[in-house]
Amino acid sequence: MLEAFGQGLIALFQPAVLLVMVVGVLVGTMVGIIPGIGSTFVIAIMIPFVFRMPPEQGIGLLVAASSVVGTAGCITAILLSIPGTAFNVPTIINGYAMTLRGEGDRAIGAGLTASMVGGVLSVFISLLVIPLVTPIVLAFKTPEMFMLIVLGLVFIVVLTEGSVIKGLISGLLGVILALVGVHASTGTARLTFGNLFLYNGLDLATAALGLFGIGSLLEEMAKGQTAVRRYDSKTKMRGVFQGVRDWWTHKWLFLRCTVIGWIVGVIPGIGGSVASWAAYGHAKQTTKDPEFDKEGSVEGVIGPESADNACAGGALLTTMTLGIPGSPGMAVMMAAFFMVGVTPGPSMLTNHLPLAFTLLAGIALANLMAGIFALGATPYLVKLARVPMDITFPVLMVVMLSAAFLIRQSLLNVVAVLVFGILGFLIQKFGYHKAALTLGIVLGELFEHYLNNSVKLYGPTFFLTPVSLIVLVLVVLVLLQSYLKTFRRWMPQGAKQG
Amino acid sequence: MKVRPSLYFLVFLLLVTIYVIVEASGYRFMEAKLLLLVVSGAVLALGAVQLFREIRPRNRAEKQPAKRQTKESAASGSEARRTASALGWTAGLFLGTYLLGLSIAGGLFTLAYLKLHRRGWVKAILITVVTIGVINVISVYGLKVDLYPGLLFEYIERTWG
């Protein structure tokens, strides 16, 4: 094992491999900044270039590019409320609020550090558990997956601040939106109005771009203010270093969220969005900061950002060792594996173990490169947030509509983004919850898919398996903790009234 | 009795939900409609509770001093004007995109918006050129995807191209 690890590292530090990884990091960072375009897209567009490359270079390029997309996306999420990728959506809630109060550089410092170290740490976890992971992953069958989705949906209650009813309405509306499109097993076209564009369903990137990008822009325009209300013009690296210190202060939260992200990444078919939302929910549940979700809390940035990149390490592990793609991006990555002559699966641990180590260490190296590059550029990038709104509005609107077109190469996707934008604006205005709506969209389709398959395969008592019951206990615990938190919030008021 | 905008929004959401229930009821397979019906039903029930809550506290708002109510309505009036302006510009951009394509409409929109918001010609042209240039370089050369050309140019190409 150690010998293979050494061989893997030697292969990684070959000049040609390092060079393609630098190219991958640069491409991934640039794509990450473009709103709505995620790692799946970057892998897909780069596949033709890796066709004739040796596996270390070809897959190394893809791994480097795809694993840093979320790192760069964190910057636009925090500064402009535009999610670079769907994984960055939870970061917006607190990150953008911090930008509005003039602490965007601090939020970016904390977010990038959490993202970078989370990515590196997930690789170490993967390296440590390679021999143990296979039986655990195989224990997650359809019923267990369904229970995990239920656990995710329960987080709607956790996400809800203010009116729980409005939060639940938002989350359930998200589930309805997720069910738009052709039903996979019956072929029924649901809520499509006979329009072919809607047959494929509503894209998460489209929804996130509309709800958080256009929606927030309209919100700022309605308030009639520039993006940043207070800003220290002398701020340079100080805010960024403050963010790095914040990350260290909240190291245990970071660690827990990294593990959450890694676990979600390892479990096939769930994806990075769930990881970052789960981490955000956990941060919200455990925070003592009264500004969380209001004026912005750094914990709300550290949580999702650490889980987001940690997910990539976990997902690659499952893809390589089991031949099961851990995310849509990894499904495209599997195609690239075959193209360069490597068959992912258990044989990877016997026939290509050095390559497995090269790729895992490659994720760590790519994260380090992207993190350091982005941290260094932060003082210049935060200036974006100081641009007056009468310049920001037309530029961002054109950029977002172009990104909307690029996601599905259809003008109807531009319409969809605008509709989501207006919905996001109204939802925020009337006290509903964009975050809960997005979580509903993320989990809705998965919920139905695993429910149908579980009932078909295991009958109505499908959830009576040991792992499912453990997850069920977790569901109850999350609900109980939320209930106790609400109860404690109400207690002093009751005492005052009494 | 003054109806609050949030009430209109809630009623809109409830009407959409009722439409979903009616539409889903017509699906042939139970598997395709079950979750939609359950979720929509839950939204309807929660919406009814929210509707009751929205109507109930209205009396308290009506008891606010007249001066405060005037101030609030003036603030919401200017907010509504700003929102309408932003939505108008957005609608214009979309219409322009539909007819002239993303590059031309985006350029015209950026230039017009900047000029009407008192930016100098040089600055306005520079920002427009950089924005449209970067978008085109990324999409056409980076992603190998042509931006939407617009109905007019599609028509011209079909007719004379």
Report on the structure:
The complex is a heterodimer of chains A (about 500) and B (about 160). Chain A has about 500 residues and is mostly helical. In chain A, strands 1-2 form a two-stranded antiparallel sheet. In chain A, a hairpin with a 6-residue loop joins strand 1 and strand 2. In chain A, helix 1 packs across helix 18, helix 8 packs across helix 14 and helix 13 packs antiparallel against helix 14. The longest helix of chain A has about 35 residues. The N and C termini of chain A lie far apart (about 65 Å). The model of chain B has no long low-confidence stretch (mean pLDDT about 85). Chain B has seven helices and no strands. Chain B has about 160 residues and is mainly alpha-helical. In chain B, helix 1 packs antiparallel against helix 2 and helix 5 packs antiparallel against helix 6. The longest helix of chain B has about 35 residues. Chains A and B meet through helix 9, helix 11, helix 19, helix 20 and helix 21 of A and helix 1, helix 2, helix 4, helix 5 and helix 6 of B.
